[in-house]
Amino acid sequence: MKFIHTSDWHIGRQLHNQSLLDDQRFVLNQIVELAKTRDVDAVVVAGDIYDRSIPPAAAVALLDEVVNRLVNELKIPLIMIAGNHDGHERLGFASRQMNDSGLHIIGPLTQEVRPIELKGKQGNAMFYGLPYADPATVRHVFDCEVSTHEEAMAKLLEQVSEHDSQGLPKIVVSHCFLDGGSESESERPLSIGGADKVSPKLFNAFNYTALGHLHGPQYKGAEHVRYSGSMLKYSFSEQHQNKSVTLVELDRDGKASFELLPLTAMRDVRIIEGLLADLLEAGKTDLNREDYLMVRLSDKTAILDAMGKLRSVYPNVLHLERTGLMSEGSKVELSRDHIKKGEFDMFTDFFTQVSGEPMTEAQKLAMTSAIDELHKVERTS
Amino acid sequence: MKFIHTSDWHIGRQLHNQSLLDDQRFVLNQIVELAKTRDVDAVVVAGDIYDRSIPPAAAVALLDEVVNRLVNELKIPLIMIAGNHDGHERLGFASRQMNDSGLHIIGPLTQEVRPIELKGKQGNAMFYGLPYADPATVRHVFDCEVSTHEEAMAKLLEQVSEHDSQGLPKIVVSHCFLDGGSESESERPLSIGGADKVSPKLFNAFNYTALGHLHGPQYKGAEHVRYSGSMLKYSFSEQHQNKSVTLVELDRDGKASFELLPLTAMRDVRIIEGLLADLLEAGKTDLNREDYLMVRLSDKTAILDAMGKLRSVYPNVLHLERTGLMSEGSKVELSRDHIKKGEFDMFTDFFTQVSGEPMTEAQKLAMTSAIDELHKVERTS
Q1: Sheet of strand B78-81: strand arrangement
Q2: Rounded CA gap, A153 and A205, in Å?
Q3: CB-CB neighbours of A307 under 10 Å
Q4: Residue A353: which residues within 8 A CB-CB, separation 6 or more?
């Protein structure tokens, strides 16, 4: 069994208000090409297919194109699970009517695990797609007592362990945050306060686990418990990541081996720093001046329309920082602002700034539950 | 070939802010039952599956249930086309992957007509599903000159006429406004100013035309060019309509015969009139007091909390009119307000009321194009 593991396509996502649809089409075409040239038996997408529960119509049309090429033209089966960004009901509509075509979408969580058996040229395998599910959802669907993400995942995996795969290797597809994983700025937290972490050990017993959620390719605990990472850089904090899909091959004993197949973006996402004059000069010969750029200007003097000047050379400057005008302390602060802060921290800052008082414990608690609720509503609306 | 023709499900629609999802599930279950007991070869839904281009998740889940029962459990093929209320890209996602299951969804308009051949116990037939398409869409897709809905439809039907159906009867499925058709308040106009009308003659040559858009069951021009009407009353102006699905049977010569199979609503939609005291008294023995009601009170005196009193007996009063307090003139005016006015008329009234001046021709033109544009954006967003 040989397949491509990818995740976090986030079709329809914007970067600093810039639509990425053309960039996404460009890299999705590469994934289709890789599936073809590497002659894989399947493509697996481990959640966050779309960026929002209600994706724009153009994003739906792009995914439709990709599905038609892979499933109808190349006859390569495609397995997709809903991630925390996806609308589970919307994504899962009519999925039972698609299965025979080779398109397998796992939308809302259901009580019974429905494994997908795929034929491979070198042997078959059983895929267990687990859509993203927070503890409340698992409690509701299974009518059981779980309060952490770890307990919820253990509950779901129990079914996988108990299922008789008729001797076939078991491949789990899941969307969660493994304890110890490296975050970047562009993943929306699964819960506030760290209760979203799941031990990698839960997945040890399976032949392979194809994970989604974290945007940098990595494995945790064991080599066969892996994140493929996103297909594009979705924030400047990912500027040094190398994006790829993971080619997974199971040998006759069900042991997995891996190869990272690099993806090339139509435009890179990167940060450039220096004096305005130097950057403008360098831009003249910069073959990649159409990249999406964050520019950090070290000039210490006022500059009229710095953004306009930069964009005349680098058309896709998305963000400008005047680091030369900041004290060392504020520079660190700003970079932390951009790179690390989630909704809760941003609101706490805002609250303190506006009210002049830090939030009380009761207020923090109210805010935490409001944010959780909003994420839930967004997922199911 | 024997099939059920239905249309204008409008799943997710509200009536005066009241969710109709339970009512819709109730009547959809009847349609499924009728398909089963009448042993039909197919069910055809002629557009406006959902009420909005972005239906609520619960509406998507309900349609998924219906599709699973019909297509997977009963093995009855289902053909659905996008109407003017539907989001074509969203509805059409992965439709190529569903066809083999017996689920046929015709989403966005494409250049080539893709007929669906269905097997019937008494003979096969060829179904031509034409999604709702305004003249601008037809111009864009076919790169041709059409400016009215009539010309646009003629262009689409040209393909149907030219297609070689191998001797099989041709059944057209379309969503449009036939000239002479009877409107009710709950259909959104296809265009402003009457340019949306299509001659029934265009459809004469086909063995049957299954139409959607108008909510009352009716035929125009010829008996085999038919609207099935909506499955529920979606406005008080439809109170006297009898809702049904149309059972269509083609004989060996391809000639169609019809039977209207009545649908029963969980709660009826109706208007009651009289003095408050009389209505409250009558309500005590009214077995249908849970119906959705518009109440017209003929009392000529002030009444404290009339709505509260009515709802203690009729829990689903959705609208109250104090006709007893109105002069004859304003009564007629009000009823026209509720029953007939589209967005344009409502805005004109509002404008006149606020500005004290009637709209100029230029202002009317601007408003017309703004409304058209909004409908277009809603359909494609």
Answers
A1: B103-106, B78-81, B42-45, B2-6, B244-250, B256-262
A2: 14
A3: 12
A4: none
Between CA A243 and CA A216 the distance in angstroms is 7
Q: Phi first, then psi: what are they for A251, rounded to 5°?
A: -85, -175
Q: Given an 8 Å threshold on Cβ–Cβ distance, is B64 in contact with A100? A: no
Distance from CA of B380 to the nearest CA of A (A): 6
Task: Please check whether residue B18 is in contact with residue B57, taking contact to mean a CB–CB distance below 8 angstroms.
Answer: no
What distance in Å separates residue B79's CA from the closest CA in chain A?
A: 13
Is the Cβ pair B101, A102 closer than 8 Å?
Answer: no
Task: State whether ipTM is beyond 0.90.
Answer: no
Element spanning B354, H or E: helix B343-355
Q: Where are the domains of chain A?
A: 2-262, 269-380
Beta strands in chain B (DSSP E): 2-6, 14-15, 18-19, 42-45, 78-81, 103-106, 116-118, 125-129, 170-175, 177-178, 197-198, 208-212, 218-219, 225-227, 244-250, 256-262, 269-274, 292-297, 317-321
User: Residues B161, B130: contact at Cβ < 8 Å?
Assistant: no
Identity of residue A98? M
> What does the alpha-carbon distance between residue A155 and residue A177 come to, in Å, rounded to a whole number?
16
Contact between chains at A57 and B90 (C-beta distance less than 8 A): yes
For the stretch A104-147, pLDDT in tens is 999 999 999 899 999 999 999 999 999 999 999 999 999 999 99
Asked if the A2-262 domain carries CATH number 3.40.50.300, the reply is no
CA angle, residues B311, B52, B32, in degrees to nearest 5: 80
Say how many residues make up chain A.
381
State pLDDT tens for residues B245-277: 999 999 989 999 999 999 999 999 999 999 999
CB atoms within 10 A of CB A144: 11
Tell if the CB–CB gap between B61 and A108 is shorter than 8 Å: yes
Torsion sign across C-alpha atoms B60, B23, B346, B182: positive
The answer, for A73 touching chain B at a CB cutoff of 8 Å, is no
Check CB contact of B75 with chain A, cutoff 8 Å: no
Going by C-alpha positions, the residue among B108, B190, B111 that lies closest to residue B144 is B111
User: What is the H or E stretch that residue A342 is in?
Assistant: none
Task: Look up residue B46 and give its two tokens.
Answer: 């002629």
